[in-house]
Amino acid sequence: MPWRVVVKRQFNAAHFLTDYHGAPEPLHGHTWCVEIHIRADSLDKGGMGVDFVEIDRFLKDILPDYKLLNEVFEFSPSAENVARWLFEKVKERFPTLEKVVVWETENCGAEYWEEE
Ligand SMILES: Nc1nc2c(c(=O)[nH]1)N=C([C@H](O)[C@H](O)COP(=O)(O)OP(=O)(O)OP(=O)(O)O)CN2
Ligand SMILES: [Zn+2]
Q1: Which ligand is nearest to the CA of 102?
Q2: 108 close to ligand 1 (CB < 6 Angstrom)
Q3: Is 0.90 topped by the overall pTM?
Q4: What ipTM was predicted for this assembly?
């Protein structure tokens, strides 16, 4: 019987796409929101699949809060690329990670997962 444990966390960061239809985008900022989806096949005695608090602490440690993403990453910091980077980081700590979603705004975001 599977569950999916989902944690959201926000961070603030500036960025610009390095090639947006042929030219760099103007520098601008977002309150980014990330969602982490982790599969749990069983629950502990307390009824938890994976402790939300552990996931949230991990995110707090690794998310580039109040940074210029272009200085943090070597890739163009689109939502898609940030989602792939975050997936790889979170998967090392939580191997049953299924999907990461990165929202740049309330309405626009990108998901990353790995095919079986
Ligand atoms: N597939 C993607 N498309 C776009 C990305 C992205 O990461 N992946 N990123 C951007 C820009 O960085 C930009 O942040 C888009 O911001 P948004 O607010 O959605 O667009 P506007 O600035 O035009 O919005 P207004 O609030 O109306 O000014 C673009 N595309
Ligand atoms: Zn943007």
Answers
A1: 1
A2: yes
A3: yes
A4: 0.90
